[in-house]
Write a structure and sequence with these properties.
With 278 residues, the protein is an alpha+beta fold. 26% of the residues lie in helices and 19% in strands. It binds flavin-adenine dinucleotide and iron/sulfur cluster.
Length: 278
């Protein structure tokens, strides 16, 4: 395998549509398990901005979760989501850009079952073990998006700047369809460079997990209060980070037999998050 280490965006653009490597905490295990095949890896760390600017409103996609969780300038929801993600070792390597694009943790997918997301016609989780899976948007693939920071950024109304364009965070994600099994809207080779994060009046992130530390969200709730209203978003409930307007939207959930408990788990978390932001 060849490793390229471009030092500028121009050099990176000339590197072709090869696998992009940031902290490597998600990509390297996928390569090791044969779920991603790459002859060329492009280390983007010298190209993607790292650090927080403009009082917390501009975040380089190469900033690590460990750097974000201690930055007093960024909104509390994002700080708390980063602090509750993964383990200290993973957070010190893992970048926010890589976190937003991490692959699903569905074990059928990780064990390379020929499921819908891998291009097949069945969702093995729907028929099999699915306790950690989705309660929304689960018609074709019932995976649960694993990113805590993505839900926080969605509630905050963040925008993403890439090497090709600027888009709202909710435009970065989409449910997989018959024609396109990808859950993100990035083009091959498109690199996330920066996140623009509005400053709310108050915000928070609450997370229910199997252990008190180092566990993916069963349900994560991000809430942010702005002058014109409150924005809510959930992690761990759909194949992509999921926006809701209010607790009442839980009535529209389509849980599987083994995930119905997530609806009841989300309810008090939403209430507590709303209480916390006043
Ligand atoms: C055991 C374990 C537990 C975890 N627990 C949690 C958890 O509880 N909550 C949570 O939110 N996350 C959790 N994670 C995920 C972890 O936070 C991510 O693995 C990490 O943030 C990914 O960042 P990275 O820089 O290492 O990405 P990489 O592994 O380098 O890349 C991940 C993907 O993103 C792409 N990529 C990376 N940066 C960019 C960019 N700037 N532009 C375009 N593409 C890019 C890569 O090509 C690759 O496809 C866990 C991971 C592990 C292994
Ligand atoms: S939930 Fe999605 S990733 Fe998991 S088996 Fe079903 S289609 Fe595959």
């Amino acid at each position: 395998m060849e490793l390229r280490q471009p030092s500028s965006l121009e050099e990176l653009n000339g590197a072709g549509n090869n696998s992009l490597l940031a902290g490597g905490t998600d990509l390297v295990p996928l390569l090791r398990d044969g779920l991603v095949e790459a002859e060329v890896l492009v280390d983007i760390r010298a190209v993607v901005p790292r650090g927080v600017q403009e009082g917390g409103s501009r975040i380089g996609a190469g900033t690590t979760l460990a750097e974000l969780e201690v930055d007093p300038g960024i909104p509390a929801a994002l700080r708390e989501a980063c602090a509750l993600a993964a383990s200290p070792q993973l957070r010190s390597m893992g970048t926010i850009g890589g976190n937003l694009l991490q692959a699903t943790r569905c074990w059928y997918w990780r064990l390379d079952f020929p499921c819908f997301l891998h291009g097949g016609s069945r969702c093995h989780a729907r028929e099999g073990a699915h306790r950690e899976h989705a309660i929304f948007g689960n018609g074709r693939c019932a995976s649960a998006h694993p990113s805590d920071p993505a839900a926080a950024l969605l509630a905050l109304g963040a925008r993403v700047r890439t090497s090709q364009r600027e888009l709202a965070l909710d435009e970065l994600y989409r449910l997989p369809t018959e024609d396109d099994r990808d859950v993100t809207a990035l083009e091959p080779g498109e690199v996330i460079l920066q996140l623009d994060v509005p400053q709310p009046e108050a915000s928070t992130y609450l997370k229910a997990m199997d252990r008190a530390r180092w566990a993916f969200p069963l349900v994560g709730v991000a809430a942010a209060r702005f002058a014109d209203g409150v924005r809510l978003a959930l992690a761990g409930v759909a194949p992509i980070p999921w926006r809701i307007e209010s607790e009442a939207d839980l009535e529209g959930a389509t849980p599987l037999p083994g995930t119905a408990y997530k609806v009841e788990l989300a309810r008090p978390l939403i209430r507590r998050a709303l209480d916390a932001i006043g």
